[in-house]
Known about the structure:
Chorismate synthase, AroC fold; 22% strand; alpha+beta; 5-stranded antiparallel sheet
Amino acid sequence: MAGNTFGKIFQLHTFGESHGKAIGGIIDGCPAGLQIDMEFIQHELSRRKTNQGVWTSERTEPDEVIFISGILDNKTLGTPIAFLVENKNQRPDDYEELKTVYRPSHADYTYDEKYGIRDYRGGGRSSARETIARVIGGAIAKLLLKTLNVQIVAFVSKIKDIKIAYDINNIDTIEIEKNPFRCPNNNENKKIDLLIEETKKEGNTLGGVITCMIKNVSTGWGEPVFDKLNAELAKAMMSIHAVKGIEFGAGFAITEKYGSEVNDEMYIENSTVRFKSNNSGGIQGGISNGNDILFNIAFKPVSSIKREQHTINSHGENLNIKIKGRHDVIVLPRAVPIVESMTALVLADAYLLNKLSRL
């Protein structure tokens, strides 16, 4: 199955299905000598896992990573880093009645059409459980970026029509992690609680927006013409389950402005290049300009709803279904570390590629 490898130099190859024996991956191209913090990697996994609150799936998994190769005495060897996370709480029987049924807005029908066979157990490879491998790869990429003082912070900025106000220059990562929905503040928590409670009772689901900020990226990262930094970030984000859109800097709102209102004018201060604004989101011509990189990602509501829906089966019959099993009401809080991980993978690759750009 093609499409399971991400990156050009810093590469992540992933494998495994939702209710198979394990999820795993191989990282290739990670430089030797990188100090590996096992506690940090496990912490990143705990931020992604299920059973974090009333809004999340009840599936309980320890999600403990086992490294098989590429690390010795907590340092990378420069050889492929292989890892596994066992699926301890698999319940494939939950999906037996869906063996021939195509769930609306899932990948069931398209996988069947493409391959002539599919893993009906929770979506198999198309399940969001696949993102475990991305978080592990992203955690190691974060450790590499930490040596360069690059910081990646993502947070939930909108749930359905509830917008969470924030000052991008005063984002507190500790407050984000304390917040049950990974929002930048608690101002809308009561509204969100009520919305999630009502939505869950109705057997429905929610979507929203995650905002991501990257600080301290040097100028020059990104490979024109087809591998622009924003293009690589867009591909990374669009590869995440349920993502339907991305915008950089001022995004779509920029279409309502004049050029004079959105050009990022430059000036020199203490021998340093500064920008009067950041409408471009820190990337110009596909290359980082030294500003903070900013983008928003739109997540659709979770497709698995506990309401009766009309669909078809593999025998070409019309029928109604009501999906059972353990599913999230909203994925955004769990998706925050996934967004950060995919961002880190892009940046680690961009950093290594940039080192080849000139003597």
